[in-house]
Amino acid sequence: MAGIWGKIGRSGSAIAISCLLLTSACQSSTEPETTSSTDDTAEEPTTDSSASSPTTLDTTPESNDETGPSDADTPPVATTPAQSCSASAFIVDTDPAGLNVRGGPSSDYAAQDTLSTAEPIQVSIVGATGDWFLINEAWSPEQQELQQPGWVYAPLLGVSTTSLNINNPEAPTTLYAEPDGSAAVVAEIPKYSEVTLLSCSGNWLQVQAPDTTGWLAVGEQCSNPVSTCP
């Protein structure tokens, strides 16, 4: 009996071992295969800074590298006189370089034109500021000389005198204290005298005679540089 049980015991052990091996194999064949959830090709999400940050516009003006000459020392062109006038005269300036026509009533303004002093030229006076006249026309017997209105120094213009007394060809010319025919008479000067200009008011001219100054009425002004007036 002992021999039989010994055989059975050895057989049982073998069977048990076989069952264990079979069970392990069965279990290994039936367990589902697990895979890693990590994707080796994935990357961390990045924030699009251009999308999350608002665009800032550059409002700084572009610099201009081209710089012209400074106009700080040149006054702007002046076209409005302090006093309105309506008179004419001729050039008495003798400078061979010509009479400067400036952009305003001062030598601080640039000369924008030059009128010849070598030929007889008449000018039309439309205003005055101080001792500067605004002229809008200048002409010689041949042509128009002025390109645009401008300012000339009053004493470089002049007129010759005539007389309102048509009954007496030798009657003198009257100068008044004010631009008014009822004002006081300051002097009487010979007819056909050449006088230089100082100022104007309406159609009256303030003139410099050899020994005095006064206001000359329109009827006693002669602005023709080549002949005398009646």
From TrEMBL:
Compositional bias per record (Low complexity), positions renumbered to this chain: 28-39, 47-60
Segments for region (Disordered): 27-89
Coiled-coil region: none
Top-level taxon of origin: Bacteria
Pfam families according to UniProt: SH3_3 (PF08239)
Record-linked InterPro entries: SH3-like_bac-type
SH3b domain mapped to chain residues: 175-217
Entry protein name: SH3 domain-containing protein
